Amino acid sequence: MPELTKTIGAQYLKNSRFDRISVQHRHRPVIAGAETFKRYPHAEKFPLPRKWSLDEQRLTTLLQNRRSLRKYSVEPLSLEDLAFMLWASQGITGQAGSYLFRATPSAGALYPVETYISVHSILGLDAGLFHFDVEHFSLDRLTSQDQAEAVASACLDQKFMARAAVIFLWTGIFRRAMSKYGDRGMRYILLDAGHICQNVMIAAEAIGCGGCPVGAFYDSELNQLLEIDDQEESILYAASVGKKIAPGI
Ligand SMILES: Cc1cc2nc3c(=O)[nH]c(=O)nc-3n(C[C@H](O)[C@H](O)[C@H](O)COP(=O)(O)O)c2cc1C
């Protein structure tokens, strides 16, 4: 039981936390930058084709058009929109024996990432915080108050988030992966979260929405909002999503 907090992975997460006081005067080590592109000037070059004849035009368009969006229409999302994004995030898409596979990959199929949402403007769903129950493809209501402002405030006061229809909040339950992989499990947990967020960003694009991944937040504040303990489970990543503003408006 006590080992988890002593791992390098847990210490790393603790030491890289933001809070409102230390964020102002946190010691930042002076580390020289690196080139934006890695180049092999002497290597033989193989130019890649920029067109491909797949019938995946739709996917190509989605990938091409995805941009982090920080201005949202006031138009609410439908419950179907939300369900589609949640399915894309972690919906169960397959089974092999007792393993249930999901829409995004996970090291060892351990799925250490939990999804919560702060609902602001979804038709047919009153605002509040919810937990996504992957197993039953349903939502568990945690609070009935609109927490969008509080979440945005906890995300270094990034006010655009409060105007999104929904904010996704991803946490890690560290033991799920670290009991198998030890410190290396922390890497896998963070990688899993990246996969999940990207699927949501692409799914958002597919339904006329846009999203913005958010990695800047006061960890403990979000953990408190979610009523999670900071050690066994802690916030990893967030993203706000809303409808795009129609051109000309
Ligand atoms: C790990 C991560 C954390 C990020 N955190 C924030 C954030 O806190 N606030 C924000 O406005 N954008 C954030 N972004 C979005 C980036 O600014 C954005 O992806 C980048 O500018 C590239 O633009 P694009 O997403 O439109 O291609 C984050 C992106 C990533 C991948």
Mind explaining what this structure looks like?
There is one protein chain. With 249 residues, this protein is an alpha+beta fold. It has one domain (3-21, 69-243): NADH Oxidase. It is 33% helix and 20% strand. It contains 9 helices and 8 strands. It has helices at 3-6, 8-15, 22-25, 57-65, 79-90, 148-154, 174-181, 184-206, 219-226, and strands at 92-96, 99-102, 113-119, 128-133, 138-141, 166-173, 209-214, 233-243. A 6-stranded antiparallel beta sheet has the order 5-4-3-6-8-7, sandwiched between helices. α5 packs antiparallel against α8 (184-206) and α7 (174-181) packs across α8 (184-206). It starts with a helix and ends in a 6-residue tail after the last strand. The relative contact order is 0.20. Bound molecules: flavin mononucleotide. Flavin mononucleotide binds next to β7.
